[in-house]
Design a protein that fits this description.
about 525 residues; Glycerol-3-phosphate (1)-acyltransferase; single chain; about 60% helix; two-stranded antiparallel ribbon; seven-stranded mixed beta sheet; about 10% strand; alpha/beta; 9 strands
Amino acid sequence: MSWLSRPKDTNRPKLGLIYRIMRIFSRSLISVWFRELDVVDNENIPQEGGIMYVAWHPSGLIDPLLLHASLPGKLSILAKHTLFKIPLLGRLLKAGGGLPIYRASDSDNLEVSKNKNQDMLENVGKKISNGGKLLLFPEGKTHTDSEVKKAKTGAARIMLIALRSAKENNKTPPNIIPVGLHYSNSKKFRERGAVILERPMKLPNLPLIVENNNEQERIDRKWVSQVTEFIEAELKRASHSKTSWEERRLIWQGRSVVYAERAIKKGKKIRRLSFAESVLGARRMRAGWEYFAANDPKKIENILIKSKNHFEELDNMGITPFDVAAKPEKPGISGFLIALIAWIWAAAWMFGLVTWSAVFGNVPPYQANYLTMWGLKKKGIEESVHATMKLGTAVIIFPLWWIFASLAVTAIFLSNNSPIFILLNKHWLLAYFTQINPILMFIILLIWWPVSGKMHLNLYSRLVRSWLSLRRWSNWRKNELDWNRLQKQQREIGSLLITLGDSLILPGDKEWKDPPTAEDDYKHVSLR
């Protein structure tokens, strides 16, 4: 997992020490939470001028943490102003780039709240005009829906202030960059994610400055409303917005079938694509599907029914389209043995050198975190904040346990009355362990618990992958599954989808031209 480097523009705010530390912290958390993460299309980041990143908000705290870790340079993030009143948290938020936002619902005095919020918008707008970078979630709140919610006007209002300030001070105009956030499953640990940086938005000309205040407010409001609609449309395009998760899943399954069929026809080996490659494939599939749904729905009606029936059958069997496509003609014993050896190798390392300390250092806080989440779910917390609460409680519980465990093990090893101390001193070489400086041992142990935990996770990922491969080979060798029928069925679906796709110019093709700002991909798909 590689992170983007800071843009070369020297006018951007410098990174302070505390901000760097917090970014290391967020990157450490994200690298543990995801087993695979891609940050792509970074060439869309302008080298000069301020930037406002806008993204949809499907996964609570995971979204800002991921973007804080992924996006280069110093990033400002708007947060509820009451959080800044908490002594330690407030200082950390401010040092980490947090800026307070005052909402009308947070105060009894609406006028005071409105004035404070306007001051905040002015301040943020000027920061962006001076080369600063801001992250915003225009929907205003996190949610679990598959479709982007209605955008609020705050992002457009800030950009209006920033553009005017940049023009007055003869500075490079700032840009709005939509960000696509894609998760294989954001609520589950060790899943896959992708951050897709879209091209900067083309905004309408700035409204003129007039003497009449009421007229000025009217034309400003019109500009803000138009830009807000642009932002909402761009977020829908960047996030592959759909009306239901079932439709999203169907698109992703169709994408995998198309990839497999193309590979088979070209005589290439079927491999697991990176998540970023899968996202592009899903974007192409969605654009083509929406094009036919809008222009010739009867053409896809038959294939839609076939696809749904096929994928439901695979789900009932506990297998995937990849299992069907990748099955060799004659699955011999050699592949099964290779998968078995890979599983034994990962298991041997995991349960040998690493796991004893990973279990002691991480299983108790993990179980405590699990019980905490169980209790919170029983109380009825919203599903949209499950990942946030899981991560938030883990950040508190794990360090506390590591401190306790380090103190306990240090005492056991170095206390004269400890059985371990007595046992180690019976051998001249092992006796050296009892002579380590207590502070040094405590520090080493404090670092070792999370390190061993991460090593354990990597080995566990290998163990799971090899186990899935072992199960796949086992299924392939089962005669009761009608693999020939399933493959014929899937290849027929793949061929139909390819025929439809090849008749179109889709995202990623050489002839493709990105649509203008605020217009969806499918509206610019055309027949070859």
